[in-house]
Amino acid sequence: MKNILPETTPFFPRDREWHPPAFTPGYKTSVLRSPQRALISLEGTKSEITGPVFGHNIIGEFDNDLIVNYAKPGEMAIGERILVYGRVLDERGVGVPGALVEFWQANAGGRYRHKKETYLAPLDPNFGGFGRTITDENGGYFFKTIKPGPYPWPNGVNDWRPAHIHFSVFGHGFAQRLITQMYFEGDPMIWICPIVKTIPDENAIKGLIAALDMQNTIPHDMRAYKFDIILRGRRSTFFENRKEGN
Amino acid sequence: MVQPLFYLKESASQTAGPYVHIGCTPNFVGIHGVFERDLGAGKLYGEAARGQRITIRGAVIDGGGNPLKDALVEIWQADADGLYNSPSETRGSADPHFAGWGRSPGDMDTGEFLFETIKPGRVPFKDGRMMAPHITFWIVARGINIGLHTRMYFPEEAQANAGDPVLARIEHKPRVATLIARQDGEASYRFDIRLQGEDETVFFDI
């Protein structure tokens, strides 16, 4: 596969003013779960530049079709049928092939299939709410699902999450490991959500909002949303030390 | 004007939330029939793997002293010879019977995570000096906005730890102890991760 030659250089430093800080009291759980000491900075060693890579053999036939992967034979999940697609790129704009992408979400009514979830909206017996895929040689991925509903959560007295899908992404190095959330174009709940607002930069929030894509919408079947995921880039090899053991 | 650089910005992190298990360890929370098994669950080694088998237990503890019961912990480490099972490993081929990566949700009642793995060999730092044996940890949970990276070192490796170039970067020396696991049995270690407050674990910006 072209483009998959292993790279062994350190990653660009994370811009920690772009990401949410640890302590964001508007999101109450962060108060006791945020380190107070400064992070110790460390340019990547072998331990961070390397990372696990997963083979296609872990992916089942319907792992990227949430409409059917938990449904009884011949049945389907209820809700707005959508296709979510995009590319996993790095900060250089280079596609990241072979990246494992995992995703999970609530059903159309905002209810998660989880034993600790108590929201009164019902479960959909044909919807599990999760899947996974591995990016192709250009970093492309897609999955079919139903659009999740917003749901209330015990933070403020009347806080509701916007419709969202959680993403967990592995790049090629453990330092690229990322978990984030995808939001939907035009959702007014985005801008009043305490979790979204942990992100200080408005442009960083916009980077998590998937665009409605009518060009890739399948007529009479499902609408499409495009969501690109950007992982850390890595330096060119020009000036690397090549001492023994490096 | 100068030439533009055209770099993209990394996607901003968001919390994994309380239901991270649905996507990452569904069988663990009783959702069966989609994934045959949870990724990263069980032993990191196969029977033919080289090296000493060890177990690591611990909990992620919040600023109130309470263990998190909804955290997800991942580890990444070298094999017994200090080689990573990764395409980016340039020094040789790692043990094919050792994954190097594992994932553990905490126990739903106690929050305790468990890894059955092997003791890693030493890996060189950028300048060729050998780092002490260590395991990289990555922690996500509800209330954690961006995954936390730390390292576990071994208590019986005092000499190697003393010369470790990463531990040497920690200016406040008493904090080094937060990265050294406690041996609590033969080939068994305890590594608690304290998010906040007294004895707060050292976290890295890697």
UniProtKB/TrEMBL annotation, chain A:
Gene3D superfamilies (alphabetical): Aromatic compound dioxygenase (2.60.130.10)
Record key words, sorted: Dioxygenase, Oxidoreductase
GO molecular function, one term: protocatechuate 3,4-dioxygenase activity
Intradiol ring-cleavage dioxygenases domain sequence ranges: 84-112
Record GO biological process: 3,4-dihydroxybenzoate catabolic process
PANTHER family: DIOXYGENASE, PUTATIVE (AFU_ORTHOLOGUE AFUA_2G02910)-RELATED (PTHR33711), INTRADIOL RING-CLEAVAGE DIOXYGENASES DOMAIN-CONTAINING PROTEIN (PTHR33711:SF10)
Family: Belongs to the intradiol ring-cleavage dioxygenase family.
UniProt name for this protein: Protocatechuate 3,4-dioxygenase beta subunit
TrEMBL record, chain B:
Keywords: Dioxygenase, Oxidoreductase
Molecular function terms from GO: ferric iron binding; protocatechuate 3,4-dioxygenase activity
Domain Intradiol ring-cleavage dioxygenases: 56-84
InterPro entries assigned to the protein according to its UniProt record, in alphabetical order: Intradiol_dOase_C, Intradiol_dOase_core, Intradiol_RC_Dioxygenase, Protocat_dOase_a
Pfam families: Dioxygenase_C
Keyword Cell division: no
Keyword Oxidoreductase: yes
UniProt family annotation: Belongs to the intradiol ring-cleavage dioxygenase family.
The name this protein goes by in its record: Protocatechuate 3,4-dioxygenase subunit alpha
